[in-house]
C-alpha cells in the first residue's frame, strides 16, 4: 500500500535511512566532532538509526492500524489484534534492507562478531518488536477515540530518537547530566537497551583491541555495564508488562471500535 503508484517502490527503504544517516553524520559526526571521540562512528550511528527506524515503523503504523482498517472492522468480524500484529511484519520488511546494508558496511571495516554478539542483535530485534507492538496497540486504541493521538506519536518518536544513544555515547549522559544514577534511569527505556545491543553486536566487533583500550581510557566504554545480564531482562519485563496493559485496554474498548469508526 505504501508504495502504490511509486516509481522507486521499496528502494525508498534504502533512500530514506541513507539520507537520515548523511544528515546526522554531517551535523553530529563532522560539525560537532563526535566522530573524533568514537572509532567507526559511521557504523555506530547507522546501527542505532536502523533500530529507531524499526521502532518508528512498528509504533506509528500500530497507532494507525485500527483507524486505517476501520472499513474492515465495521463490515466483517475477525481477530482485530491481527491489525496490530501485521504492522510488525511490515516493519520487518522495511527493516531487512537496512540491516543488510549495515552488515555489508560492517564487513567492510573488519566486522568479526561472536555468537554472543549475534544473539544480542536478535535480542534487540525481539525487544523492539515487543515494545513497538505494545506502544502501537495502546496508541491504536487511543486513536480510535481521540485522533490527536497521532500527533502525540510523532512527538514521542522525535523524543525516542534523541533520548536513546543513537547519535552519542551513553557515557555522555552520566558525564553531562549531574543527576545521581541518571544513566540507570536512562536505560530503563527499552529502546536504549535495543540500541546498545546493536552497538554491541555490530559496532564493537569492528574495533581492534587497541581501539577498545583507547576508548576505555577516555571513559567511553563500548558497552553499558551488565547490559546482557541485567538490562536486557529488565527491558523485556517492561515490554511484556506494557504489552499486557495494551492487550487489556484493547479488550476493554474493542466492543466500541465499530461505533467510533
TrEMBL record:
Residues 8-253 form the ABC transmembrane type-2 domain. GO terms for cellular component: plasma membrane. Keywords: Cell inner membrane, Cell membrane, Membrane, Transmembrane, Transmembrane helix, Transport. GO terms for biological process: lipopolysaccharide transport. One of its GO terms (molecular function) is ABC-type transporter activity. The keyword Transmembrane applies. The keyword Transport applies. The chain crosses the membrane at residues 12-34, 41-67, 87-111, 118-146, 152-173, 185-203, 223-246. It is a multi-pass membrane protein. It is found in: Cell inner membrane; Cell membrane. Belongs to the ABC-2 integral membrane protein family. This is Transport permease protein. It comes from Rothia aerolata.
Amino acid at each position: 500500500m505504501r508504495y502504490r503508484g511509486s516509481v522507486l517502490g521499496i528502494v525508498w527503504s534504502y533512500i530514506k535511512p541513507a539520507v537520515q544517516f548523511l544528515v546526522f553524520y554531517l551535523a553530529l559526526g563532522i560539525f560537532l566532532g563526535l566522530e573524533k571521540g568514537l572509532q567507526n562512528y559511521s557504523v555506530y550511528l547507522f546501527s542505532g538509526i536502523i533500530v529507531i527506524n524499526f521502532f518508528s515503523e512498528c509504533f506509528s503504523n500500530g497507532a494507525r492500524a485500527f483507524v486505517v482498517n476501520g472499513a474492515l472492522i465495521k463490515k466483517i468480524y475477525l481477530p482485530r489484534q491481527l491489525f496490530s500484529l501485521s504492522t510488525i511484519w511490515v516493519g520487518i520488511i522495511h527493516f531487512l534492507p537496512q540491516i543488510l546494508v549495515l552488515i555489508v558496511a560492517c564487513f567492510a571495516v573488519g566486522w568479526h562478531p561472536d555468537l554472543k554478539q549475534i544473539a544480542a542483535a536478535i535480542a534487540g530485534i525481539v525487544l523492539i518488536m515487543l515494545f513497538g507492538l505494545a506502544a502501537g496497540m495502546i496508541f491504536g486504541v487511543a486513536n480510535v477515540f481521540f485522533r490527536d493521538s497521532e500527533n502525540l506519536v510523532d512527538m514521542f518518536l522525535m523524543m525516542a530518537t534523541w533520548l536513546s544513544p543513537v547519535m552519542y555515547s551513553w557515557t555522555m549522559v552520566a558525564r553531562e547530566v549531574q543527576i545521581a544514577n541518571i544513566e540507570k534511569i536512562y536505560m530503563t527505556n527499552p529502546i536504549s537497551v535495543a540500541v546498545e545491543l546493536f552497538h554491541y553486536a555490530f559496532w564493537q566487533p569492528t574495533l581492534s583491541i587497541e581501539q577498545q583500550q583507547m576508548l576505555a581510557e577516555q571513559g567511553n566504554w563500548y558497552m553499558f555495564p551488565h547490559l546482557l545480564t541485567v538490562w536486557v531482562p529488565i527491558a523485556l519485563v517492561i515490554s511484556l508488562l506494557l504489552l499486557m496493559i495494551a492487550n487489556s485496554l484493547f479488550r476493554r474498548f474493542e466492543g466500541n471500535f465499530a461505533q467510533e469508526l
